[in-house]
Structures are given as C-alpha cells and as structure tokens.
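Budget justification aside, the reviewers requested a transparent look at the raw inputs and outputs of the sequence design task funded under Objective 1. We therefore reproduce one unedited record. The lines immediately below are the structure tokens for a 449-residue chain.
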C-alpha cells in the first residue's frame, strides 16, 4: 500500500493501518465503530471503491457504504454546542490544599479563595433546570482546585444536600462524584456518601514509598481509606503514573488487592510533565506495564482504566467536550484544570460568572472555546486516532506553545492500535475459533515499535 492510497480514504474517515512484520493491514472506521483485517489486494479494492466506485466490485462497494453510512460527529447527541448541552456540572469549592503533590497541575492557583454556598446554589438551580436541559441523567462532580473537604461544613455538605433536594423537587436523576486526596473524613461525610450514593474517588498512589515520594501522608490516607471501606463507603482510586512508578503498575494492583480487596475500580493516568527527558521511553513503559496490570487486575475482578483506554470507546472532535466548571471565585471555566485567577490561562478559559442573582454566560466566547478542536490542529488531519483522542487536551497543547506533542501523539496511536488488535483477537476467537496471533504474529511488538 502507498501513502497516497491511505490519503484517499481519510476523507471518508477510513484509515489503513499497516502491521509491521506481516502482510496484513487494519481497515479502521472509527465513526462506524468497525475494524477489519485485510490483505494488500483487499485494501486496494477498498481504495477503488472510494476513489472510483464505477470500477469497484460489489462486495467492496457494500463494505464502504456500510462504513460510511454514519452520523457526522458534529451532529451526534453528545456534542456540546452551547450551555444547554452540558450534562455535567463541575464544582471546585476552593483553591486551598493541605498537600503539595510533586506533579500538581493547579499548584500555581493556590489561594485562600473559597466558593460561597449561595453561588453554588445558583449554579445548581441553573444546571438542574429542565428549561435548560432535559437529559435523563445529570452528573455533579466536586473536586479541586484544592482539597474539597477543606470546605466540607460551609460549602460541600450543604451543596450536596441542595442538589438532591432540587433533584427530587424537579424529578431529575442526578449522580454526584467527589474526588478527595483522602486526608480527612469530616463529621457527617460518610453518612452523606451513603445517603446519596455519592461516587467517591480517592487520589492515592497505593504503594507507600511512591505515595510518600509524590504526595506524602501515606499513613493518614491509607488509614482513612480503610475506615471508609469499613463504614460501607468503598471509593475508587485514581493514581498518577510517573517515572517513579511506571514499571510498578502490577505491584500497585497486587497491593490494592491485598490491602483493599473491596476496591474494584482504579484509574492509572500517565503524568503530563514537561520535565521528563525521554517521553517516548516513558510512554512505551506506561503502555507495556499498563496492559500487564490490566491482565492482572482482571484476575482480581478489578476494572483498571485510563483516559487512553476510555477514549477507544468514544467518537469525539474534542478530547474534552468542554466543561460547565464553577470555580471558587464564582467564575465559569471551560477547563476545570484552570480554575484560579493566578493560573496563566484563566482569563482565556473563563466564559461566565455566577452570583446570587443567577448565571451569566458570554455565549460568543463559549462558542469560540468549543470550536477549538481537532480541526484546529493540522497534525490531526490524517491521524487514524483523531476521532478517539479528539486532538488531545487543548490546555496541554496551549502549554506546549500550540504545537504537536509528538511523543504523546505516538503514544495515543500505539495504545489505540494495540487495543484494537486485542479486541479483534477476541472477535476472531469467539466468532471464528481462529487465533489472530497465528495470522499476524505476537502483536505485543506494537507496544514499543
């Protein structure tokens, strides 16, 4: 296959992915959620069906028709076009934190700022109103900013109560998530979690030496997690993977299972850190050890995920769909990772304000922010992973000077390719009783190619 042949297909969002070490190719149609294993002649037939339909055979034409009969991404229901489409409200109660994590993205935004509960109520009223959005399910996410439980008594507890009072009054279905560093269990917190079935997430590095190196306070957090579990509130765990623990992900799963067998959901996220000297090596290691950890987690009935894995199952033109994020000062940010006036991109991302009188939105600015997507980045044009990664995090691109992070892009493509092959292997085994590895070889090689 020639590069020109592949480019013929990209306009239809069809991608030919060569498999080194064998004579096979993947035909990937992300918008149709389909993947086919083809040889060279079959790929050429597909190219003809796209470029010159009159000269194509019926089978190739029917395949192309099926793969191209899709709803455009911009017309899909989950697309956020304006403030009426938001189904998640992110609330950042403060810019205060009692930790100083080595990789913290919001450390520059630290201050004594705390959200007033009246502004939080106004945001909830606006968000939950059926006049704005009639989705069957709405979600409210409470996190930092800072550590949300430092504002438990005056903001977070009354806020959660208010969410569910309003939800019941308006017959709305709402789920609340709260992310904490696990450093405290304030009075009444676990009761509220049980009462409203709050999805609780603890940011925790699992291994004692890693936690103490990157976040500190292992003894306090591990003890609090055990207390939460013993009192019937089982959290999920978010762990940040850095050069310190990138090759210890299986060890992390073992420790999680041994110490907290009740916990069944964990996310490992590779750190975004410009100081990593060899990012290619880091991402290679992350992918290699992540998938080993996934296999081990399955043995223990633990669901291990990461953003790159979740993105395999989505079709988007933006990595982040855009956020209705209420910051501690009452502003609305399209990116909850930028929530303080002390952060460099704050004014760039803020598109509204909330006060006791209601919500005010600059619709023109919000529209402009939401239009920043993969179509704004030339390096995404012919990439087979673009509809899954959505062009990557806009904030990270901006922090990278508006340029492509080639190491990250290669990581996303490699991760997606490997995941697609794993899924194709299951299909071949279940439907045809064929071992895919006998056809293409051991595809573990694609992790580090």
């Amino acid at each position: 296959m020639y590069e020109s042949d592949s480019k013929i297909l990209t306009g239809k969002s069809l991608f030919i992915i060569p498999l080194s070490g064998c004579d096979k190719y993947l035909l990937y149609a992300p918008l149709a959620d389909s993947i086919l294993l083809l040889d060279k002649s079959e790929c050429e037939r597909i190219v003809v069906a796209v470029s010159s339909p009159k000269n194509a055979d019926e089978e190739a034409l029917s395949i192309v028709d099926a793969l191209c009969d899709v709803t455009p991404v911009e017309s899909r229901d989950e697309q956020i076009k304006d403030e009426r489409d938001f189904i998640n409200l992110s609330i950042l109660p403060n810019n205060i934190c009692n930790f100083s994590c080595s990789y913290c993205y919001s450390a520059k935004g630290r201050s004594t700022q705390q959200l007033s509960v009246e502004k939080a109520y106004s945001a909830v009223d606006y968000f939950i109103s059926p006049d704005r959005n009639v989705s069957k399910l709405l979600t409210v996410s409470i996190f930092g900013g800072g550590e949300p439980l430092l504002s438990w008594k005056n903001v977070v507890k009354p806020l959660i109560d208010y969410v569910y009072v309003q939800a019941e009054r308006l017959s709305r279905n709402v789920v609340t998530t709260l992310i904490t560093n696990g450093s405290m269990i304030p009075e009444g917190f676990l009761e509220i979690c049980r009462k409203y079935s709050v999805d609780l997430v603890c940011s925790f590095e699992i291994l004692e030496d890693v936690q103490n190196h990157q976040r500190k306070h292992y003894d306090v957090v591990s003890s609090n997690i055990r207390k939460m579990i013993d009192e019937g509130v089982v959290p999920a765990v978010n762990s940040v993977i850095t050069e310190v623990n990138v090759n210890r992900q299986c060890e992390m799963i073992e420790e999680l299972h041994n110490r907290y067998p009740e916990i069944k959901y964990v996310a490992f996220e590779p750190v975004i850190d410009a100081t990593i000297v060899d990012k290619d090596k880091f991402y290679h290691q992350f992918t290699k050890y992540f998938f080993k950890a996934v296999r081990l987690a399955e043995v223990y009935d633990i669901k291990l995920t990461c953003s790159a894995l979740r993105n395999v199952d989505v079709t988007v033109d933006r990595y982040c769909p855009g956020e209705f994020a209420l910051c501690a000062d009452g502003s609305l940010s399209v990116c909850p990772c930028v929530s303080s006036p002390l952060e460099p991109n704050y004014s760039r991302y803020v598109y509204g304000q909330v006060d006791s009188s209601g919500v005010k939105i600059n619709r023109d600015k919000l529209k402009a922010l939401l239009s920043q997507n993969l179509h704004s980045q030339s390096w995404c044009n012919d990439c087979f992973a673009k509809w899954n990664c959505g062009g990557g995090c806009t904030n990270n691109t901006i922090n990278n000077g508006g340029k492509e992070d080639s190491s990250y892009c290669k990581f996303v493509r490699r991760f997606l390719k490997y995941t697609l092959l794993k899924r194709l292997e299951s299909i071949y085994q279940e439907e045809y009783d064929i071992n895919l590895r006998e056809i293409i070889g051991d595809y573990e090689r694609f992790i580090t190619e």
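The longest helix spans residues 406-432. The CA atoms of residues 333 and 349 lie 5 Å apart. Computational costs for records of this kind are itemized in the attached budget.
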